[in-house]
């Protein structure tokens, strides 16, 4: 390989690094101050691109030249910044008091709403924006042509870094932002107007997201997949750099840019997974990212199931519910039973996550890994071992438990958001394996023909099988949550130092919790595979993980029955809304936002709170 | 009492005339599902197409004296949602059979669902070979020319170009992978001395266009086979144009000539690329012209390939039901296998051995017409000679 090629490839890497940094640095700022993992950051980026792709051509028609072009980019970014303010004032401000994860759920609702609104406002077709006036022609570098706009982008990254650095270091606002990043409570105690600070940060964060999107217009057509394709990479950049660290994000973006530019020469398929590999390796070596500080623990960290003595186990109510559910096939039609089966499966899936989040305080963003492993365990058993349903179904919790052991061993050293991101990385790596290992897993078409044995094939029988297995597992998990093991997990969640002082071993306990939760999620995955006859990599994907989180949070993280109610509500909503309208994402998103605002403790949690109040 | 009642009702039917009696019959219900939310740019023109056909058919009295009714659903663009919605259509709506879906993995899952529930499924849009090959089954039929056939048409053009050093760029998922595999196989079989000098498989929607263009350029190919589409393609074309990647090279590109993909490229259409596509504005056959006119009148928009497909599929469904004489599954399968249809693009046969229709595709060169792209020097290639051979089909199909 000659030198000129290496130089050009490095420049290619630099320009995508710049783009990535500008898109991601707003996310890290917002997280630093508000502790909100803003899922909607990618949506803001997408709105920036759409706005610029629509606005800039109009400005250019009015007067062609660099000034209207850059003005258009700036205006687009400002518009997105204002949208950020709207989001903060109307939505986020109302739920700062709720558990931190709740804000994530609210932003996820925003993602769904924006996806449908963008199609409504800008149309379904991609919008190709104009090229930058004066920067159409390439420049010659070492005898090779290189687009001049990419050179501008390469310069834009450090410029934005300087701009953000100036704000953070040289303005009063920046001082407050830095102070809030270190200790939010202290800043509030000193009488700083929190509301204004948060609104300002959201404005800046959204402005940068919009700028990132708008700057892409001369390279990429604005399209409605931009939000999800950028958000995962933005997470990686912020986590690898260290949450809240802007220079860290810059360095992380540089590394990712170069890895991708040169990685594709050796492994042409590497763009699928390279960022998540980098995140996993970084966190394994540096548990707080490159420049991140250990997270500040405050007393109010415990957001899960309270550590009081177990309430009287209402055996009569549980038995009555089980009898009613078991009698369902007598009255319900086939389709109703199919939906009911799926709700039971999803309830177990969310319930297993409750063991990690609610009891152990271990927030997992990658719980789909175990659901998917379970589904693949069952499917691979059918396809490659020729097993029947009875033989293949036990493979589901087995494979998932093995996966959970491996993932658990990696993540138990981490805490907070880094732990969550490590689970996300693990899930994405497994996703890539399922996606790429076509000979075994069938690639993205997946494996089909995973149907139950003949005796279990009727919907009513399969429903009863599912009911027995999911209810049994949930009762078992409930027993574990109320056993000394469960209490030990809660103790570590509430105060790791005190738990260690009385001789508990957090890592082993957490590792066991991961294995248990993984096995339970795996069983749910296996049951799911047989209920619909096929598996494919989307079962391991981010949307599936988000599903589990949504059900858990909707139901209520502080209660044991919460995830079951959450699964029932979310799946029923989806089932009812989707056939009715092409705007199902809009309605689902609005429903989620509405429920977050009305039931800030989750459905069951809020009901209980009302009863006690 | 009973015979008397029967006589009475016969008398009544005669008195009111046969058409009235037929109109009282319940309509034939067909289930349709597609990703109308997530892939609106493709599926909405497709829906317009089948809606147009449906209106035409019902205006002429429907089929077998009954109206056609299409119960349309959103499939959520995932396999889990699609199969659940399909179950709802079958068990609650009582539809006679199903058609639709856009994504390949959804199509494959739907084919398996059809096989399990023993109900006919017509995959209109998915391109993956799996639907008619390895995952094919008795209940699943496909209309659109599959990956293998469209790549085959382009390889014919590669032969004519004389290019020997080929680079491949394809999105990293089943559609891209299998198109690349077929191209590699066919180019070596049909063009002596051809070699593959570079391959790039960016993740769907995440291309590093600059790096990809440089990597291909470095291999100094004299031909490029492209399977990228959508936002990835736009980015690739812009970077490639600026850096001169496409100069003095033969570029073959799958599907790029379809209006769905051409329209978003606006005036940055890469002129001279050899593509498969749909030159809707140039096809002179009167039946096709009538379709375009009716479509434009009804929707105030130009047809996409999806529109044509939706329109054709519903007309073929009408013919099938008429020939089957009922909507019984076995009768429908019998009426579909080896059936000949007279469509607006010409005769189409549904091959019995793999349930792949012989609908062809247009190949030609891209050209800029005013502010948007179009095709010139195009020809319509009937699908029959490009289908996988019967021995190949028999080798992979499990039945």
What report would you give on this structure?
The complex is a heterodimer of chains A (613) and B (399). With 613 residues, chain A is an all-alpha fold. Chain A has two domains: 20-285, no CATH class; 318-541, Orthogonal Bundle (ABC transporter involved in vitamin B12 uptake, BtuC), CATH 1.10.3470. Chain A is built from 26 helices and four strands. Chain A has helices spanning 3-34, 41-62, 66-90, 100-122, 148-170, 172-182, 184-189, 194-215, 226-241, 246-266, 274-285, 315-331, 334-359, 368-384, 389-392, 395-411, 416-436, 438-441, 459-481, 484-494, 496-501, 506-532, 542-555, 562-577, 584-598, 603-612; strands at residues 138-141, 144-147, 447-450, 533-535. In chain A, the strands form two sheets. Chain A has a two-stranded antiparallel sheet with strand order 1-2. In chain A, strands 3-4 form a two-stranded antiparallel ribbon. In chain A, a hairpin with a 2-residue loop joins strand 1 (138-141) and strand 2 (144-147). In chain A, helix 19 (459-481) packs antiparallel against helix 22 (506-532). The radius of gyration of chain A is 25 Å and the shape is globular. The N and C termini of chain A lie far apart (72 Å). The model of chain A is unreliable at 297-302 (pLDDT under 50). Chain B is an alpha/beta fold and 399 residues long. Chain B has two domains: 7-146 and 284-359, Response regulator (Rossmann fold), CATH 3.40.50; 148-281 and 361-390, Rossmann fold. A seven-stranded mixed beta sheet of chain B has the order 7-6-8-9-10-13-14, sandwiched between helices. In chain B, strands 2-1-3-4-5 form a five-stranded parallel beta sheet, sandwiched between helices. In chain B, helix 4 runs parallel beside helix 5 and helix 12 packs across helix 13 (329-336). The relative contact order of chain B is 0.12. Mean pLDDT of chain B is 90; it is low at 1-8 and 10-23. Chains A and B meet through helix 1, strand 2, helix 10 and helix 13 of A and helix 3, helix 4, helix 5, helix 8 and helix 9 of B.
């Amino acid at each position: 390989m000659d030198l000129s090629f290496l130089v050009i490839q490095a420049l290619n890497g630099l320009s995508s690094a710049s783009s990535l940094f500008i898109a991601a640095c707003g996310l890290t700022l917002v997280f630093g101050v508000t502790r909100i993992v803003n899922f909607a950051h990618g949506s803001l980026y997408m709105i920036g691109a759409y706005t610029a792709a629509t606005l800039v051509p109009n400005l250019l028609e009015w007067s062609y030249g660099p000034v209207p072009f850059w003005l258009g980019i700036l205006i687009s970014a400002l518009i997105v910044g204002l949208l950020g303010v709207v989001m903060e004032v109307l939505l986020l401000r109302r739920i700062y008091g709720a558990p931190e994860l709740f804000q994530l759920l609210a932003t996820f609702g925003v993602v769904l709403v924006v996806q449908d609104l963008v199609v409504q406002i800008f149309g379904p077709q991609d919008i190709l924006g104009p090229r930058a006036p004066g920067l159409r022609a390439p420049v010659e570098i070492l005898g090779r042509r290189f687009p001049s706009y990419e050179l501008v982008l390469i310069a834009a990254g450090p410029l934005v870094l300087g701009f953000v650095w100036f704000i953070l270091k040289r303005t009063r606002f920046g001082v407050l932002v830095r102070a809030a990043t270190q200790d939010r409570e202290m800043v509030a105690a000193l009488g700083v107007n929190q509301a204004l600070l948060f609104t300002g940060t959201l404005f800046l964060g959204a402005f940068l997201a919009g700028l990132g999107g708008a700057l892409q217009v001369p390279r990429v057509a604005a399209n409605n997949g931009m939000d999800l394709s950028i958000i995962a990479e933005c997470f990686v950049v912020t986590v690898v750099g260290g949450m809240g660290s802007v220079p860290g994000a810059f360095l992380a973006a540089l590394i990712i840019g170069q890895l991708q530019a040169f990685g594709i020469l050796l492994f042409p398929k590497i763009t699928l997974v390279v960022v998540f590999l980098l995140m996993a390796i970084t966190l394994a070596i540096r548990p707080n990212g490159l420049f991140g500080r250990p997270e500040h623990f405050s007393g109010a960290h415990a957001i899960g199931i309270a550590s009081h003595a177990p309430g009287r186990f209402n055996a009569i109510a549980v038995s009555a519910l089980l009898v009613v559910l078991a009698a369902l096939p007598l009255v319900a039609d086939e389709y109703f039973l199919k939906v009911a089966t799926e709700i039971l499966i999803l309830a177990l899936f969310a319930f297993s996550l409750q063991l990690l989040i609610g009891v152990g305080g271990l927030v997992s963003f990658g719980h789909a890994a175990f659901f998917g492993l379970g589904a693949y365990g069952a499917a691979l058993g059918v396809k490659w071992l020729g097993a029947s349903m009875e033989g293949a179904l036990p493979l589901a919790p087995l494979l998932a438990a093995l996966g959970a052991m491996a993932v658990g061993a990696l993540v138990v050293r981490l805490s907070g958001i880094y732990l969550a991101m490590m689970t996300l990385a693990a899930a994405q790596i497994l996703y890539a394996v399922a996606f790429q290992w076509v000979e075994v897993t069938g690639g993205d078409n997946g494996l089909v023909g995973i149907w139950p044995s003949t005796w279990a094939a009727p919907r009513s029988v399969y429903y009863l099988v599912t009911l027995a297995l999911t209810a049994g597992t949930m009762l078992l998990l409930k027993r574990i949550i109320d056993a000394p093991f469960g209490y030990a997990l809660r103790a570590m969640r509430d105060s790791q130092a005190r738990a260690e002082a009385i001789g508990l071993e957090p890592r082993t306990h957490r590792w066991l919790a991961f294995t248990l939760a993984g096995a339970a999620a795996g069983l749910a995955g296996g049951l799911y595979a047989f209920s619909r006859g096929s598996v494919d990599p989307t079962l391991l994907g981010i949307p599936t993980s988000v599903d589990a989180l949504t059900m858990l949070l909707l139901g209520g993280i502080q209660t044991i029955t919460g995830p079951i109610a959450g699964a029932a509500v979310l799946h029923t909503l989806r089932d009812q809304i989707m056939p009715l309208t092409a705007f199902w994402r809009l309605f689902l998103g609005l429903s989620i936002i509405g429920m977050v605002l009305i039931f800030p403790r989750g459905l069951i949690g809020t009901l209980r709170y009302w009863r006690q109040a | 009492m009973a015979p008397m009642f029967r006589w009475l009702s016969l008398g009544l039917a005669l008195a009111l005339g046969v058409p009235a009696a037929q109109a009282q019959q319940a309509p034939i219900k067909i289930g349709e599902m597609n990703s109308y939310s997530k892939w609106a740019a493709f599926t909405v023109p497709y829906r317009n197409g089948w809606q147009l056909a449906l209106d035409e058919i019902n205006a002429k009295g429907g089929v077998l004296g009954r109206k056609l009714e299409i119960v349309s659903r959103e499939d959520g663009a995932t396999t889990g949602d699609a199969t659940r919605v399909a179950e709802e259509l079958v068990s609650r709506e009582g539809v006679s059979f199903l058609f639709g879906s856009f994504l390949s993995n959804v199509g494959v899952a739907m084919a398996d669902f059809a096989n399990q529930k023993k109900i006919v499924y017509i995959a209109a849009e998915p391109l993956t070979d799996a639907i008619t090959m390895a995952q094919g089954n008795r209940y699943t039929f496909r209309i659109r020319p599959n990956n293998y056939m469209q790549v085959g048409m382009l390889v014919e053009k590669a032969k004519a170009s004389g290019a020997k050093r080929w680079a491949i760029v394809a999105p990293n998922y089943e559609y891209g992978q299998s198109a690349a595999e077929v191209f590699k196989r066919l180019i070596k079989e049909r063009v002596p001395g051809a070699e593959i000098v570079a391959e790039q498989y960016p993740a769907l929607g995440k291309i590093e266009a600059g790096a990809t263009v440089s990597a291909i350029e470095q291999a100094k190919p004299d031909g490029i086979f492209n399977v990228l589409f959508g936002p990835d393609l736009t980015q690739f074309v812009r970077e490639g144009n600026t850096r001169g990647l496409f100069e003095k090279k033969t570029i073959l590109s799958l599907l790029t000539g379809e209006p769905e993909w051409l329209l978003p490229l606006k005036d940055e259409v890469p002129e001279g690329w050899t593509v498969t596509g749909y030159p809707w504005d140039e096809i002179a056959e009167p039946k096709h012209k009538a379709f375009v006119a009716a479509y434009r009148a009804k929707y105030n928009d130009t047809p996409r390939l999806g529109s044509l497909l939706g329109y054709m599929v519903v007309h073929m469904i009408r013919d099938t039901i008429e020939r089957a004489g009922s909507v019984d599954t076995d009768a429908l399968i019998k009426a579909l296998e080896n059936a000949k249809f007279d469509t607006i693009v010409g005769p189409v046969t549904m091959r019995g051995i793999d349930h792949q229709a012989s609908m062809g595709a247009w190949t030609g060169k891209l050209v800029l017409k005013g502010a948007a792209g179009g095709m010139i020097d195009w020809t319509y290639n009937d699908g029959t000679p490009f289908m996988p051979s019967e021995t190949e089909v028999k080798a992979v199909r499990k039945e």
